[in-house]
Amino acid sequence: MDLFDFNGNAEGAKPLAERMRANNLNDFIGQTHIVAEGSLLRRAISLDRLGSCIFWGPPGTGKTTLANIIAQTTHGEFIRLNAVQAGVADVKKAVAQAEDNLKLYGKRTYLMLDECHRFSKTQSDSLLPAIERVTYSVHA
Description:
CATH topology: Rossmann fold
Number of helices: 7
Number of strands: 3
Radius of gyration: 16 Å
Largest sheet: 3 strands, parallel
Structural class: mainly alpha
Low-confidence stretches: none
């Protein structure tokens, strides 16, 4: 953080889509078949009983927004990685952070993994043990 961060410049520099992103399920538009009042997903989120999920769909359908809302609603941490840009070291760092969050603060970590189909076998193998141990939930 530096002196200019106190002016709120970082918030204004975010893309419009990021600034306008919904922060809760009531503001989330679309995908009513999975997030409607009383739906299984919505109940799991509100009860903080959601396990690993895979969100699939074309760009702009709300996958990242929904993953962020889940993390906020359940008071979890939110990590975003792109499989094209992230290496094994990035995955291991995210897993270590998730383990620390769980051990130190009792918080789950939600990993938004964009372009997960582009993960190599090595990248996938570095993430799989953490998912099996329920270190964090993965949303892709």
